[in-house]
Amino acid sequence: MKNENSQLTSHSIARLFGFTQKEKEVYVRTIRNQNGMELTVSDLGATITSLKIPVSDYSNVDVVLGFDNAEDYEASFSLPSPPFLGAAVGLYAGRINKGIVKFNGRVIQLETNLGMHHIHGGNRNLSNQVWRFKSATLDENPSLTYTFTTPENHGNYPGSTTVTVTYQLLENNALKVTFHATATEDTPINLTQHSYFNLNGHDQAVEGMQLKLYADTFLDTDYELIPSGKFIPVKGSIHDYSSIAECPKSIDTTFVLNQPLAATLFSPKNQLRMDVFTNQPAVHIYVGGNCFNQIKGKEQSNYHPLSGICFETQNFPDAPNHKHFPNALLKKGEAYLQETLFQFKKTTAL
Asked: Which amino acid positions bind beta-D-galactose, per UniProt (predicted)?
């Protein structure tokens, strides 16, 4: 079965990446900036499959985890804990307590796909659907744009929501990610990009990298990582990354931001730094990527619990159920905008 994406365009470099279980063709497209930074994105989940950063005149390093074909991406959603490698995530990234959302005098019961809770948009989410390739630019600051419209009341989200994501490579070696969304009815929304980064190389471990977070507090949660509504000071806590520290081996925590600069990651091995900027109120930090020895990563890599670190720039988890959390309701006729910038640079030390 062919889909709209089988119409190749002269505006991007595209190749067949595989087929979904429903026999839909999946393509990947690659763009490069003038410095040799290279980005590859899949139609399936509007997923970043590769991000190569020049580290010398003769070599580059692929800094995101991924798979070699569409079939493996689709299969990864059946793993004991789906990793969402590189995907666009929504309609609501993160957890919603018991899948219940209350607004406008209504009580909405979303799908519960993490025990009794809702996470990352449910079982049929933005990450495992084939998006429509919309456009590309190949000149200065090249870009790729994808769009997806959810079916009416999909997963019990009210109405239909149209999401567009643009990935742009800036000439100063930054990746800019921009989400736009509109909805036919008032609906909860929280979109994010779920790449697992490893500046040592996608087939390495996070050990040896250094991390700094620009946040004063993080969200208190229960044992199921559902926010209590309280904020915990970073200083002196187990999550104190206010100064450069070793990359954590285990973390699944939402940090509250008060400025556009959210985080800095540094690899002494490759002398490569990444700064994360966003217009979102939080960044959720997660270390993982485990594929449970069931699926090989790209280039036959074995991804494990320490393979990569996510910087999920977003609103707060469970925000619709806490009045003092930032608004997470997209109203009919209004526009949602999420912008995140991943800035890369060579440096010998922080």
From this structure: 194-196, 252
